[in-house]
């Protein structure tokens, strides 16, 4: 019996599928942007991809000190990327019957009150990260709460797992319960201290996080802009144009702004690494502004359907040149699974009168998400030099899947079936930098 080798060189053999670029929407037999090896090998050294190719070509070239792990009848894809999610809302997922503004008052704010307790925050952070990894998500852009303790707890748990994560403290100084309010100055100072402590530490990045325009005064939004000027490589993470009542409220609160998005633009919050969740009710000027500033949209179809917000126009937003990733938006989203989220994205696109190919759905969950977060030089596919976060999928994980895949003729069909019928049960393993 061969003993496991201790070298940092590892090879993983299975079917392998990843994207080299945006494959578009049409289901051609095999777009040039898709790379698929029916019997492939992913070669990893010290946590980074060194090669990916067919087993027939790579087996003879494997280093003598390389450990080979084989996953028969499994499919390896890159680790999935969730561009918008709230870890404090883990315990209120599947809350009944409200739309956005009422949902915040009834469910969200009381739940987030508990995160002043670092012990509670750490327990939820651990459960949250367990769920992400169980669902094959290896990177996420994550809301904390207004409490600095919530961010410390999250980053401590993420650092212990060596995860590439982005998170931040919510800034919120009005139109919310007093127990969740900060001030423009305390929000700035607490965020600044957290940036100094966590941003760029290991695989962690910080996001300046005003919840949404209605809960921040102009003074606080200006302070958020000041943080982006002082720390130009941090992220900005917020919500925009999710719900029509919300849009109308912003118009009342900021009468000098041309649009909801313009509120953020006027305060210097739109730039590369600005992640704007939802973006459903934008006009042409808004989309052009996002493209010109380099801000990204997070498409959250499960959440948008669950709380009745509307149908995101993926093709139109991308046609304007806006970067788009996909978000589960738990807890308004009802699943941690990006496979299930892609399932809903397909349906939303159908309701818009368009079709979404399975390769485009995988792109949104992997390389498209990485591009929207400006991390495509590090994650998103298996190009040499990328961090080796990947997921091993079992296409026969349920009796129905096992029966259905017997009739799949192509990898496109297999992938589509996995997205339509799959969930956390198809995730056999989630590997972080090869481990």
UniProtKB/TrEMBL annotation:
InterPro entries: Amidohydro-rel, Guanine_deaminase, Metal-dep_hydrolase_composite, Metal_Hydrolase, Metallo-dep_hydrolases. Residues 76-399 form the Amidohydrolase-related domain. The keyword Zinc applies. Coiled coil: none annotated. Its EC number is 3.5.4.3. The keyword Metal-binding applies. Belongs to the metallo-dependent hydrolases superfamily. ATZ/TRZ family. PANTHER family: GUANINE DEAMINASE. This is Guanine deaminase.
